[in-house]
Specification:
- By secondary structure, the protein is an alpha/beta fold.
- The chain contains 6 helices and 11 strands.
- The chain has one domain: Rossmann fold (3-Layer(aba) Sandwich), CATH 3.40.50.10420.
- The protein is 27% helix and 20% strand.
- The strands form 3 sheets. The protein has a 7-stranded mixed beta sheet. A two-stranded antiparallel sheet has the order 4-5.
- Helix 2 packs parallel to helix 4.
- The longest helix has 16 residues.
- The chain is globular.
Length: 196
């Protein structure tokens, strides 16, 4: 199967989960991540708002705030429509829908961070394998925004993919522009990736 077929099949699978199954999976995943020391060490955590059956990180967002971390949501760069910046996300942050219908903070570009400025980045995905390869929704936003990580050894951000275990594929073909994950968190386990 090519990435488009995998994407189509797994989007259907994750969207077929009931609301109760989604909530339980998010609770179980959050419990696993909250036990890990890497999570509470980051002071700037990139997060996302779950959409289209994605694993919901909202419990992790609450835990990060309680631990004194600052949370940031992705915002599509208005000048370069294929890259993401990150804007601070608080309980009172004003949000508006972008062209994909995904809510983003309403802030001036001068107030946004690049991915380089984050300590941890929680990433949604459609499919993953145990080598850290990830298939997203197909826009390439995260890969373009993290391209600096392919050019040199950057210690941060730590890239953590959040997914339902049913989104695992035995092997995905990694493209040259793909930025691999460091960790994958599902409702069953934390998968630590050994980078090649």
């Amino acid at each position: 199967m090519d990435s488009g077929e995998i994407r189509g099949q797994l989007r259907v699978k994750r969207c077929s989960l009931t609301e109760q199954q989604q909530e339980l999976a998010a609770q179980q995943m959050s419990l696993l991540v909250n036990k890990e020391s890497f999570f509470i060490q980051g002071s700037r955590v990139g997060v996302y708002l779950a959409n289209d059956g994605e694993m919901d990180p909202s419990l992790l967002v609450s835990a990060a705030r309680t631990a004194g971390c600052y949370c940031f949501l992705p915002v599509i760069d208005p000048l370069n429509a294929h890259c993401l910046y990150f804007a601070q996300y608080d309980l009172d942050t004003e949000l508006k829908a972008n062209r994909y219908g995904i809510l983003e903070p309403v802030v001036e570009q001068a107030m946004m961070l690049s991915a380089k400025d984050l300590d941890i980045l929680l990433m949604p995905l459609v499919a993953f394998d145990r080598e850290g390869t990830r298939i997203g929704m197909g826009g390439g936003f995260y890969d373009r925004s993290l391209a600096f990580m392919a050019e040199a050894e950057y210690p941060k951000p730590t890239l953590i993919g959040l997914a339902h275990s049913l989104q695992e594929i035995p092997h995905l073909i990694r493209q040259q522009w793909d930025i691999p994950l460091h960790l994958i968190a599902t409702e069953k386990e934390i998968i630590c990736v050994k980078q090649k």
